[in-house]
Structures are given as structure tokens and as C-alpha cells.
Amino acid sequence: MIKNKKLTIKQVRKDFANKKYTPEELLADTIKTIETHDSKYHAFVSTTFDEARDALQSDEKKSLWGIPSALKDNFNWIGTKTTASSNILKNYISPYNATVTQRLLDNSACILGKTNMDAFAHGSSTESSDFFTTLNPFDDTRVAGGSSGGSATAVGLNMSVYSIGSETAGSVRGPASWCGLVGFAPTFGRISRYGVIAMGSSLDRPGVMTNSVEDVAILHKILSGQDKYDATSIQEPPQDLTNELENHKRNLKIGLPKQYFDDRIDPDVLENVLESIKLLEKQGAELVDIDLLDPKYSIAVYTVVQRSEVSSNLARIDGIRYGHFSEKNAETLLDQIALNRGEGFGHEAIQRSMTGAYTLSSGYYDAYYKKAQQVRTLIIRDFDKAFENVDVIMAPTMPTTAPKLGVTKNNPIFGELADVLTEPSALAGLPCISIPTGYDKNGLPIGTQIIGKQFDEKSVLTTAHLFEKLLNN
Amino acid sequence: MYQLVIGLEVHIQPSTKSKMFCGCNAKYFGSAPNTYTCPVCLGLPGALPVPNKVAIEKCLKLGLALNCKINKQSKFDRKHYFYPDLPKGYQISQYDMPFCYEGFLEIDTDKDAKRIRITRIHMEEDTAKSIHNENETLIDINKSGVPLVELVTEPDFQDIKEVLAFAKRLRQIVRYLDISTADMEKGQMRFELNMSLKKAGDKGLPKYKVEVKNIGSISVLEKVINYEYERQSKILDDGKNPDQETRGLRDLSGKTHSQRKKEVAEDYRYFPEPDIPPINVDDKWLEEIKIQIGELPQDKKYRFIENFKLEPSTAETIISNKNRAQWFEDAIENEKNHETIALFGKWFIRDVLGMAKVDKIKLKDLKFGGKDLLELVQMIRNGELSGTLAKQVLDEMYKTGAKPQEIVEKRGLKLVSDEGELNEIVDRVLRDNSKVLDDINKNPNIIKFLLGQVMKMTKGKADPQKAMKLIESKLSKN
Q: How far apart are CA A227 and CA B129, in angstroms?
């Protein structure tokens, strides 16, 4: 009935209205898809089919009613397991809702499960999930990407129509790119972080993965808007761009940073992205070559900032009030905490905590964390300057298409390297979207990203919408 | 004899409805364990702190009252250490940009006023409470996330009286400005003592510093200083240096015991709290806070001394709390005579406060007003009542709330100051006691005895001064 067709929220609502199928049928069908494929693909850490069925009893006038969806496992949802794909939290049941979860449920969201991720979002492959690796929907010998890999494969395999992910650098854009989806992360603070298990607090942004830019706008209207529970949330009402998508800017100026288009990028990717962007040029957009700081600097800055914050954010998981509690006999309280954490955390979390603790240590703070924040300021200014001349910046989302399974082995900063093209904009907290623009010679999806000014989700989404239409023609 | 070198750290819990970074009730004291909690103060994954504006305002208010500079751009920082009563594995505090810094508080010493320099005043959150039983440690999260204002002084105290005067004045200011009720029993004001000794005349700071944590009252603070003086001076007498260490208290005796030797500074891995944006303290906000400050207790004291010619100790007692000072000032607002005011002050402190204290009654709940007490004092000053009679009147005012004039009339307590009437009584007393008059030159107390007899015959209603004069003049004539 619905197989092999890229569903969108808009289409499903039309189909419901036209009685093409009922929400119950769609839900049953989706559950069947999950039951058939997920034991192999591992998009989900846990499923919530009962909750999804119950959700059909909620207000059917709300925009997400009956639309199968998936939630990344770092979003708290009352009464469900929220593990962040980690062993240390493997039995942790959320006693509260993240603001994103709450807003979804308030709009009758039908959530079928919590999706797999790199444990605590530490990675770009889901290979550092403490449970299993999520496979790429296009090639089961390849990774889906990460950290929101489960969310990507869920949509890619029609196990959900849209999914919620989160970005610290490229954790939404990256897997969206590798799985042929639209992946969007708004300005830092536009969507509340309350209830999202923190990775790098100054970088974390909830985001969405969909099959269309229109769906992004629908979800953005629901999820955006200030939140009294997040002091860093932007003090503005929800952003409704659903009726603005056609209003793209005339004489659009698109910046193409040459540092994002050099020989470090896979030739197939490079060719496809440039060719795709030319579609916009044909529609009257002006392409402007610009200079940005080399993204390689962002790798260093991002690694230090993110790992410092990780070391601090993971400190609360000590196994005392919740989380893994060691069976071994500890002599002192501190020994007990050390045992709980040592046994409970995976390799990646331990490694990042250690690096982060080091970069925050007295005597090293100035050389690492402080220096990184100073360079971060330069990166933000670098973008500000670029946006004086262009409306949006476009570039490949990822330097390559999805790599083979096992790619992260013996590569302690695989994530940071893979996300090189998404890190600068993440450090600046800019709104950005990845749009699927084609395939490489192996038939693997390629994504092109559009980066906007701070708070300028409108330019990003209108350009993306236009871009998408041109690509579909 | 050694010279004390003392610096204080004071933790004050500002009175707020909710905790520092969440909506939980901050008035946790006495509640059942783990009932005032939420994801934020429990440190659950994903929870975020949102700073409490009222708490920050109270911190700024204290800074302004203590002559501090204010950081217009301030921020919170994370201070990391692992302990089960620290739910997040870090405490949200302020590191290098405290709200307030470089201020001072002037205290009165035996000689004159002395400035104690305030290094900084910052805002942080309290930890949870560990309850150590025999074989287990229990954690009560209620206290976790309760706001704390931390004030740090320079090592400016040189004797114990200065420390106590500072602590009392600070507590007073905090209460005057409605920053905190500073209820020591509820742990709303706690001290940390940094103390060392040096030889009188030695320059600079000693090589060591002893830190005593968690001192819950001013009286214990005094005991601790005395104890530490003895302990440290003995070590110094032996030619050794006391260890640089943190010491704790087991009970209220003031005895300390070693907790942790501090050879190297602990690394708390401070970094700016990414969950809370930097805080702008603009001039408009500061002006709004300044308006709320009003007259500080020490200023009130000096004004009372200046305007009402009160003794410093009387003024100090009267201004020791705001309501008391207000009661006093309202009562005497139209009184110009300084002697009357002085006498009023005496009656107020000794009698009114005395009675109120015994019965634990607040001034505002007294049945009579300040103006009634003034009327009573004026009657004493006019010679209409003796002190003894006035006390009887006051007792009735206290019990019934009746006006002094009414009581005097109803009970016929007015002094006999009519010369003719007194004359007769004095004559009668001299007549009845003629035997003792012979010894009058040997025993000057006899004259007091005679006055006593006069008072007895008049049931205390004789004007004592007049009666005394009469007795003296009659005796000199004899």
C-alpha cells in the first residue's frame, strides 16, 4: 500500500482526508515494516507501539495526528526508556518530558519508538552505540551516519514519516545526507534543549529529519519558540514558516566557500553538489565565491569545546540516584562512583570525559578551552562577515558518502573528522539544512547543505524549498 | 601572645519562593526528605538550570549595601567535584566574574570604626544533604539547588571582637534589607573561618592557613576562634607551624578536628556554565535595587546618636532590628527633649523589650503603643510618677492596653507632691523615728531609711525627690 514511497506529513494528511487509508492502517503497516526490518537495520533502541496506538485517540485535528514518527533516544519521554544508547542508562525510565517531546505530544504525535544513536551522541556512525550499529537504508554494509543514525534509517526505511534528531556538530545533517533525507537544525536556542540528554551544551540543537522541506516547516512551527525551562532559548514565539516557503528572496545571493569545495571532498560529491547548486543559478540566483576560515580549524575548536562540555555533562551520571550501580564492593563513596562510571560508560564516553577533564584542568584551561572559545568567536565573526555579502551559504554536507561499517575502528576522532563541513556552522549556532541532491557512482545519497544567518531560518527554508522543487523536476 | 589573622566566608540563604535554578519550593527546612525535588535539582539527564532573578537581585542588593563594585557583565560557572550530595557532579557557582567585588563593611570597635574589606560576593546553589547513619549514608535532595549568597572577606580581622561585630552587623544588614531571615537554626547563615596566628609585629600573612567549615552560629564561631587560638598557639610555642588544613566541627563546643590536609589547591575545572547566558546587570536594574535598600543599620545608629543624643550602646540595641528602631522612632517623633528621649530609651530597652522577650511577644503585637510609653515617661519626667509607680502602670498597660493616664486616675497612683501634705507626712516620720536620728551622723543610710518610711506611708506615691529635699532640710535645721 504505502511501501517504497517517500511519505510526507502533508501527503499523509491528504491521504487521511481522502480516505485513501486510515491512520490505523498506516500505523499497522509501519509497525509491520519495523518488525520485518529492524532486527537487521537497528533503527530503534526501543519501540513504543502501545503509546503510538494510544496516540490515535488524541485530538485528530492536531497536525501530527496519526503520522508515524520516531524520537532519538536522548529525548526524555515520561514512562519510556531514555538510554541515549548507553549501557549506563540502559534501564533508565524518564520521569519527565523534554520540551520537544511535550510539544510533539501536544500535537497528537504518534511516536513508534526511540531511535539508536552513538552513545550520548558521541560519534557520526552509531558505531559507538553501546547496543548495536544502525545500517544504512541504501546499503546494509554501510553506516547510516550519526549520531542520529537511527532516526535517519527509520525515515529512510518508511519506519516513520519524520523523525526527531539532535545535532552537536553534524548529527542531523550528516545522517540525513548519507540516508537521502532532508535534515534541519535551526539557530542554537530556537528549539528548547530542555530534556535532551546533553552532549555539548553550547552546541546542542534538536533537529528534524523528513522527506520534504514542507514537513520541516510544519515541525519547526511546533517545536520552535521560547521555553521557560531553557535559559538559552531564544525569546521569541514559535516560528511559522509554513506559508512562507514560496516567498524566497529575489536576487538571492549564494555564497560558495572555496574551502568547502577543494580536493578534500570526494569528486562525486563535489560534482553533484556544484551541479545541483547551478539549478538555482539558472533560476536567477547569484553564486558568489567566498572565503571562510578553513574548516580544519573548526575540528580542533569543536573537539576541545565539545569534549570539555561532555566531561562536565556526564559527571551527573554517577550511578548513585540512577544508572548503573556496580555489584563490586567499593570501600569509599568515591570508589563506588568510579566503579559505577567505569563499568557503565563505553569507551567513547570515557575517552571524551578524560580529554575534556584535561582541557578544563587548571594550567591547561587557558591553552585549550579558553583558546578554543577565542577561535570560536573568530569563526562566528567570519560567518558574520560572509553574510554581509550573501544571503545563504551552500556547500557539501559531508565530504564523502556513507562509509563502510567498521570505519570508526582505530580512528579516535572519526566523528570530528567526518563532520568537518558541519562543525563551523555548528560552532556558530547557525540554522542549516541538508537536502538530498543525488547519488554517487555506488548509488549512495549525496547531500548539499544550506547555511543561513543566525535567526534567519526563513532564508534557509525558502531557499531549500526552491532547491528541492528544482531538483524534483 | 599572638596576633590573630582571620578572614571569613559567609553563606547566606536569600529568602526566595523557589530554588536557584528550578521552580521547587526553597523553604525546604523541616519538610519530609526528597519531597521538594524536580528533574533540575535532582540533576536528571537533560534537565537545565534557569536562574532565579529574585535571588540575583538579593545578591546585588547586599553588594550595593556593602559598598561593592558590581560586574555589569557577569556569568555563572561550573565547579566540578564528585560527591553523592552534589547531584550534577558540579555546582553552579561563580568563578572569575562574581556579581559583586571589592567592597567593605564598617564595624564599631572599642577604639573606633574599622573597615573590613569584602573581597567578593557571589551567587551559587546549595548541595543536597548527606545524612550519615551507622552503616549507610542517605541523601536528602530538598536542600539541593537552594540559592546561596557567598561573601568572602579579606583577612582583616585582628581580634575576636571584630569578627563577632562583623558577623552581627552582617546578619543585621541582611535582615534589614530583607535579603534573608538569616535564621541560624535553619542554616540560613553559615560561616567558614580562615584563621592563622602570627607574632605581634610580624608583617605579612602567616605561612599557613586553617580553614574551619560549617560553623552554624555566631556563638559557636566565637568558641571555635578561642579553641583554635589555643591549639595553634601551642604548636607555635613549640616552634612548629600548624598544618595547612581544613578542620570540621563535631558538636557545638567549638572543638575542631582535622578533615583534610591541603597541600595543593584542588582542581575544580571551572568553566563558564553553557546552560545560562551571561548576565547583564544594567544601570536601570541597579537603580531599581538601590531604591529598595533604604537606611542601613549602622547609618541609623549614627543618626540616632546624633539626633537623639543616645548612648552608642543604647542606639545599638534599639537599631538591632528594623521594627524595633521603627517603633522607637515613631514613638518619639514629636519629642524634642533629649533627656526625655534618653529616659524613654531606657524604659523601652529595659522594661518593654524585657517583658516582650519573656513572653516572646513581638512589638507589633503589644497592647499599647510607643506613644503611650512616651506619655508614661513624660509623667515620670514631670514628677507625676515615681519609677516604682510607673512600673506598676506599665505592667497594667502591658496586660490590658489601658492608657497610662487612665490607670493612674483609676488606681489613684498620682504622686503626692503637694508641699503641705508631704510636710505633714515627713514631720510624722521624723517624730516616729526620733530615736534613730541621734545616729544620723554616723550612719548616712538612715536618711534613706527615713525616705523609705515616707514612701511606705504614702504607699509609694510620694514624689521621692521632693520628699528627700524636705527630709534633708528638716534635719539640717535640727
A: 30
Q: Would you say domain A1-473 falls under CATH 3.40.50.300?
A: no
Is A151 one of the annotated active-site residues of the chain?
no
Q: Catalytic pick from A124, A125, A128, A147?
A: A147
Q: Which residue of B has its CA nearest to A356?
A: B269
SS3 label, residue B116:
strand
Q: Hey, where are the domains in chain B?
A: 2-290, 295-411, 419-477
Where b means 16+ CB within 10 Å and e means fewer, A384-404 reads: eebbeebbbbbbbbbbbbbbe
What is the rounded CA–CA span in Å between residue B410 and residue B406?
A: 6
Find out whether A62 and A108 touch, Cβ atoms under 8 Å.
Answer: yes
Peptide bond into A147 cis (omega under 30): yes
Contact call for residues A467 and A247 (beta carbons, < 8 A): no
This prediction's pTM = 0.91
Residues 6+ apart with CB under 8 A from A411: A417
Measuring CA to CA, which residue among A45, A163, A64, A161 is closest to residue A105? A64
* In contact, B144 and B125? CB cutoff 8 Å: yes
Put simply, the answer to whether A96 touches B44 (Cβ < 8 Å) is: yes
Give the integer Cα–Cα distance in Å for A419 and A395.
13
Within B383-418, residue ranges assigned H as helices are 387-400, 404-411
Task: Answer whether B87 touches A (CB < 8 Å).
Answer: yes
* Model confidence band, residue B413 (pLDDT cutoffs 50, 70, 90): confident
For residue range A277-307, what is the model confidence (pLDDT) as tens digits? 999 999 999 999 999 999 999 999 999 999 9
Distance between CA atoms of residues A105 and A71, nearest Å: 11
**Domain boundaries defined on chain A:** 1-473
B419-477 placed in CATH 3.30.360.10: no
What pLDDT digit, counting tens, does each position of A387-436 carry?
999 999 999 999 999 999 999 988 888 888 889 999 999 999 999 999 99
* DSSP-based three-state secondary structure for B80: strand
